[in-house]
Design the sequence.
C-alpha cells in the first residue's frame, strides 16, 4: 500500500492512520480497504463532524439562553471526544475553541449567579414593601372597606412576587400573617363598638325627633327657628344610627322642620308682599323728590320736600335690598335742597359779602407788595429773597382764586 500525507495526518505503509497533534503523532485507526487518500478523506470527515458539533455549540451559547450547566456538560463531552477522536484535522484548534467556550460558560455562570442574587434581593425588596404596607394598614387604617380590599390585594401581590431566600421568605410571611390578623381583630373590634354607638345614636335622635315634632306647629317664628337650628346641630353631633333607623328618624325630623318652615314662609311671604308695596310707594315719592333738583325756587322746594318726607314716613318699612337705594336717593335730594338754602342765605347776607370783598382786596394788596419785593430782590441780585417772594406770590394767587370764587357765589 502506498502512503499519503495531510497537514494534520498520514497513512503509513501498513495502513495505520496517524493524526498530528502539537508536534507528535497519535494513531487514530487502520485502513486496509482502499487507497491512502480514501483513508484520509474518511478520517477528515470524522473531524468535520466533530468540528460541526463544536460550531453548533458556539452558536447555541451565543444565540440562545443555554444554561451554564448544560453548556458545561456539552463542552466536557466534546473535550473528551476531541481528546480521543479517531479523526484527522486540527484537533488542537478544536480543543482551544472548547477551552475558550469553557471560559465563556464560567462567565455566563457568574452572570447567572449574580442575576439570581439580584433577583433574590429584588424579591426581598418587593416582599418587604408588601409587609411594610400591610403592617401600616394593620396599625393605622380606619377606612375598613378600602383597607380590607388593599389587604387582599397585598396577599395576591405576595403570591405572584418572586421568591426570596427561604429564611427571609419565612420571616416576612410571618410578619405579613401577623399584620393581617391584627387588622382583622381591629376591624372586628371597631364594628362591635360601632354597633353599640349606633344604638346610643338612635336613642339620642329619637329624643331630638320628639322635640322637633313638638315645635312643628309653633308660630313663635324667631325663637322656634333658632330652636330648630340648635336641634340640627345636636342631630349632626349625635352620631349615626343604623341605616334603616337613620332613614326613618331623619324622615320624621325633616318632616317636622318642613312643616314649621313652610308655615313661616307663607307668613313671611305675605309680609314681603306688603314690604314690596311700601317700596313701590317710596319709589314714586323718590321720583317726585328727584324732580325738585336742580333747585330753582328754594321756598317751593322746601315745602314740597317736607310733604314728601311726611308721606315717606307714613309709607312704612321696605325690603332690606331696597332700603339703602331708596334712603340714599332721598338723602341726595335733601342735601341738594339744603345746599340751595345755604347758598341763598349767603347771598342775602350783606356782612358775608363785605367780608368776602375785604378778603379779596387784602390778598390783592399783599400780592402787589410781594411783587414789589420780588422786583427789588432781582435788581440787587438776591436770588434767595427773590425765590421766597415768588413762592409767597404763588401761594397768595391760589388764595385769591378761592376768595374770588366765594365772592362770585355771594354776588350772583
Sequence:
Amino acid at each position: 500500500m502506498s502512503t499519503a500525507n495531510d497537514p494534520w495526518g498520514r497513512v503509513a505503509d501498513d495502513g495505520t492512520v496517524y493524526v498530528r497533534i502539537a508536534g507528535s503523532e497519535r494513531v487514530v485507526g487502520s485502513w486496509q480497504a482502499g487507497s491512502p487518500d480514501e483513508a484520509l478523506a474518511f478520517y477528515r470527515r470524522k473531524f468535520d463532524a466533530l468540528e460541526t458539533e463544536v460550531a453548533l455549540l458556539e452558536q447555541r451559547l451565543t444565540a440562545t439562553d443555554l444554561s451554564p450547566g448544560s453548556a458545561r456538560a456539552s463542552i466536557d463531552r466534546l473535550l473528551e471526544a476531541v481528546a480521543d477522536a479517531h479523526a484527522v484535522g486540527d484537533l488542537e484548534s478544536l480543543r482551544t475553541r472548547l477551552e475558550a467556550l469553557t471560559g465563556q460558560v464560567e462567565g455566563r455562570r457568574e452572570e447567572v449567579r449574580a442575576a439570581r442574587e439580584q433577583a433574590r434581593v429584588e424579591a426581598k425588596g418587593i416582599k418587604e414593601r408588601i409587609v411594610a404596607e400591610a403592617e401600616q394598614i394593620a396599625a393605622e387604617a380606619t377606612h375598613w372597606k378600602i383597607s380590607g380590599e388593599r389587604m387582599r390585594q397585598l396577599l395576591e401581590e405576595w403570591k405572584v412576587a418572586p421568591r426570596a431566600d427561604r429564611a427571609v421568605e419565612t420571616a416576612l410571611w410571618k410578619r405579613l400573617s401577623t399584620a393581617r390578623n391584627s387588622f382583622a381583630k381591629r376591624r372586628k373590634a371597631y364594628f362591635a363598638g360601632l354597633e353599640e354607638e349606633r344604638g346610643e345614636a338612635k336613642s339620642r335622635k329619637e329624643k331630638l325627633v320628639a322635640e322637633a315634632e313638638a315645635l312643628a306647629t309653633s308660630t313663635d317664628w324667631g325663637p322656634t327657628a333658632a330652636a330648630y337650628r340648635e336641634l340640627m346641630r345636636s342631630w349632626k353631633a349625635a352620631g349615626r344610627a343604623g341605616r334603616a333607623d337613620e332613614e326613618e328618624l331623619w324622615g320624621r325630623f325633616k318632616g317636622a322642620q318642613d312643616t314649621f318652615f313652610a308655615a313661616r314662609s307663607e307668613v313671611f311671604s305675605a309680609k314681603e308682599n306688603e314690604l314690596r308695596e311700601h317700596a313701590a310707594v317710596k319709589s314714586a315719592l323718590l321720583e317726585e323728590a328727584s324732580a325738585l333738583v336742580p333747585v330753582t325756587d328754594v321756598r317751593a322746594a322746601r315745602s314740597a320736600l317736607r310733604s314728601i318726607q311726611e308721606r315717606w314716613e307714613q309709607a312704612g318699612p321696605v325690603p332690606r335690598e331696597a332700603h339703602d337705594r331708596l334712603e340714599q336717593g332721598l338723602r341726595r335730594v335733601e342735601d341738594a335742597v339744603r345746599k340751595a338754602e345755604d347758598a341763598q342765605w349767603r347771598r342775602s347776607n350783606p356782612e358775608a359779602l363785605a367780608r368776602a370783598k375785604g378778603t379779596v382786596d387784602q390778598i390783592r394788596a399783599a400780592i402787589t407788595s410781594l411783587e414789589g419785593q420780588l422786583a427789588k430782590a432781582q435788581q440787587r441780585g438776591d436770588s434767595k429773597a427773590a425765590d421766597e417772594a415768588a413762592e409767597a406770590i404763588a401761594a397768595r394767587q391760589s388764595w385769591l382764586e378761592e376768595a374770588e370764587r366765594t365772592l362770585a357765589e355771594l354776588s350772583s
Observations:
- The longest strand covers residues 24-30.
